[in-house]
Design a protein that fits this description.
Helices cover 45% and strands 18% of the residues. Helix 6 packs across helix 7. The longest helix is centred in the N-terminal third of the chain and has 20 residues. The N and C termini lie far apart (41 Å).
Length: 373
């Protein structure tokens, strides 16, 4: 996949460079192209391919073409640091889009701060913006928002007995605490809390413990592959419990792997390819024709980030990172192909709304849009 992405980006750049006299403006990106989260990295790469094409078709920035360089973080802190150092010191990028793993973002945070490089993070852990690094902004829903929206939606449906099943990584541990805090704001405690590790295949012991607690709702905070396997086992062991998943459950790959057992599950998500918004559907059609499948969440989030960063460079009139960051943080009401309008707040968060989705006929159907306020 890395060779294919690199070849496509190289061909696209060759097609555009002939009309430019100046050297390219380099934008960096990172994600897990290999490893357990490689599906997300592939999705991100596809969004960046289309973004580079669109930016250059519109004249590039500052009279120069844009070249987006994506490095493989492998979804690991050490891989992220290696990727970031290459992008910063060898490629001299204006900014870095990614990573989609919170642990990776936190691993590169000191380097980002030290070198003064823009980072448009895709991890959802609250600690990313809580770290107070002025060079980091986030273009993804954050965990507090997602947890509050899930709990509030379930309460509105009349449920009061909640169980939590979470991954033991930074993403999952953060989600667990945010869910507990969200329940506490309504005077509730979970009836059961269980955990699993990334890569686990058998969740029988944890689900049996949850079943003994007799919950009405099971909120699962984990990644796509685990979601699919958990859905299959929940269908057998907890068939009458309402399932709420993290954003990954809406992914096409996760839905397919679940083999129909995610049907009826709810989640919060910043995107659904079924959104009837004309801009969303135009992008879905283009992506479907190019890659043979609808774009996923990380596809549109990386695409939108690249487009906003290019716009910030145009507004700044320079590639000076501090001036570009200043213009980036001024962006308000930016309409992306995700269907969300991005507005950066004082913490660097671009999201103040997201969708409640339900899996219906093995597709993520938008039920409603909820706001942070």
């Amino acid at each position: 996949m890395r060779r294919i992405v690199g070849l496509v980006l190289a061909v696209a750049l060759m097609a555009t460079c002939s009309v430019y006299a100046a050297d390219p403006v380099y934008i960096g990106a990172m994600g897990a192209i290999t490893g357990g989260s490689a599906i997300s990295g592939e999705q991100a790469s596809q969004g960046l391919i289309l973004a580079e094409e669109d930016i250059n078709a519109a004249g590039g920035v500052l009279g120069r073409p844009v070249k987006i360089i994506m490095e493989d973080s492998r979804g690991l802190p050490t891989g992220g640091v290696t990727a970031a150092r290459k992008l910063i010191f060898q490629d001299n990028v204006v900014g870095i889009i990614g990573c989609h793993q919170s642990t990776v973002v936190m691993a590169i945070e000191p380097l980002i701060r030290q070198e003064g490089v823009i980072c448009m993070a895709k991890g959802s852990a609250d600690m990313i913006t809580a770290a107070g690094n002025p060079w980091i902004v986030r273009v993804r829903e954050y965990d507090t928002l997602a947890a509050s929206a899930k709990v509030r939606h379930a309460l509105d449906k009349g449920y009061t007995r909640f169980a939590i099943f979470h991954n033991t990584d930074q993403f999952g541990e953060g989600g667990r605490q945010n869910l507990i805090d969200a329940l506490a704001r309504h005077g509730l405690e979970p009836v059961a809390v269980e955990a699993h590790n990334t890569g686990d295949k058998d969740f029988t012991a944890q689900l049996l413990n949850i079943r003994r607690a007799d919950p009405e709702v099971l909120i699962v905070w984990t990644h796509g592959d685990e979601h699919a396997l958990i859905c299959r086992q929940v269908a057998q062991l907890l068939p009458d419990v309402q399932y709420y998943g993290s954003m990954a459950i809406t992914q096409w790959s996760s839905i397919q792997m679940a083999e129909g057992t995610s049907e009826g599950a709810y989640t919060t998500s910043p995107y659904s390819y079924l959104n009837p918004d004309p801009d969303v559907q135009a992008f879905v059609k283009r992506h479907q024709e190019r890659f043979g499948r609808p774009p996923e969440t990380f596809t549109v989030l990386y695409y939108d980030s690249a487009m906003m960063l290019a716009e910030a460079i145009r507004r700044a009139g320079t590639t000076d990172r501090a001036k570009v960051l200043e213009e980036l943080k001024k962006i308000k009401g930016w309409k992306g192909v995700s269907g969300i309008e991005y507005s950066f707040d004082e913490r660097g968060e671009a999201f103040n709304e997201l969708f409640i989705c339900r899996i219906e006929n093995q597709q993520p159907v938008i039920i409603e849009k909820v706001s942070v306020n």
